[in-house]
């Protein structure tokens, strides 16, 4: 399993929304937004709140890719791995389900928790980081996108 660094964990917390890709039975991609991606004890998890297609796909093929990008920093990570579906009652399931309900409210269903065994993590960088001349600092990029999004 690839280590999740403090920076990766910070991006996940700041970005809030991530996108999880799985493979449909016919080989086409399935992309599902997740606001429940989290790191606990160096392990990546997300909750199945309303994702029956994602869970169906992972039961058949545990391959998963997750993209998480902080829109203001214009950077993030692509995580590739294998998913394990944790059922209700599992200790790790309870840890994540309790967090989801504490964060969002007790009415949020958590049908499963998905644990990711990371096999690859690569940076995702916007052209603002790669091509800007002269190069811009992270703070300059953040200010630019705060203004762009009127935050």
From TrEMBL:
Any one Pfam family match given in the protein's UniProt record, by short name: PNPOx_N
Alphabetically ordered keywords of this record: Oxidoreductase
InterPro entries recorded: Pyridox_Oxase_N, Split_barrel_FMN-bd
Span of domain Pyridoxamine 5'-phosphate oxidase N-terminal: 5-117
GO terms of molecular function: pyridoxamine phosphate oxidase activity
Coiled coil recorded as keyword: no
Protein known as: Pyridoxamine 5'-phosphate oxidase family protein
Organism: Rhizobium mayense
EC code: 1.-.-.-, 1.4.3.5
Tagged with keyword Ribonucleoprotein: no
